[in-house]
Amino acid sequence: MAQRQCKTIPNTKTLATVWDAQFLLRYHTVANQSERQTVGAHSYAVSVLIDQLWPDSSKQLIMAALYHDVPEIILGDIPATAKWSYPEIHQAFVKAEKKVFEDLGLMFVLSPEEKIRLKMADMLELVLYTHRHSQGSEQMKMIMHSGMNYLYEKFSSHKDFEPIKKVLAHYNLGGVP
């Protein structure tokens, strides 16, 4: 009898990379922060936000949320404020991230609307996390306010922004900061 072989043999380089990515620490530029968030915890939270805010989200979008920060294990994490202040760094980072995603076989085809949902959920997670840890930390407060400004400036007129506003209001973070 012929031996059957699994047709879904995983790419072990990709598997090892995405597994290790969950343990990377975020907010590494904030001094004396007692609790450190990992990429795994962040990605889980972004995925949950997408599922809860927009229950009609595709599997592609949920998977993209789970894997969206995997390139940080190879490229490191550049703070959003640095990307905002230095567009040339942001452009180079986007190009490098795309290459890492391609090399790992983690390319997700998202519609323009899904890309916006992913970005909104990613930034909302930043706001909620920094809000939770902003007591006594001026740096975390600044990051939180930068994230809130970003959400409102970029997305407040978008049709999918309403659930974001409700979440911010729930945490008394409604309105433009």
Question: Overview of this structure, please?
Answer:
The protein is mostly helical and 177 residues long. It is 62% helix and 0% strand. The chain is built from 9 helices and no strands. It starts with 11 loop residues before the first helix and ends in a 7-residue tail after the last helix. The mean pLDDT is 87.
Short description:
With 177 residues, the chain is an all-alpha fold.
Span from first to last CA? 69 Å
Order of helices and strands: HHHHHHHHH
Sum up the overall morphology in one term: globular
User: Average pLDDT across residues?
Assistant: 87
Q: Please tally the β strands and state the result.
A: 0
List the helices and strands and how they pair.
Blueprint: H1 12-21, H2 39-53, H3 59-67, H4 72-75, H5 80-85, H6 87-104, H7 112-132, H8 138-155, H9 162-170
Task: Supply database-style keywords.
177 residues, mainly alpha, 9 helices
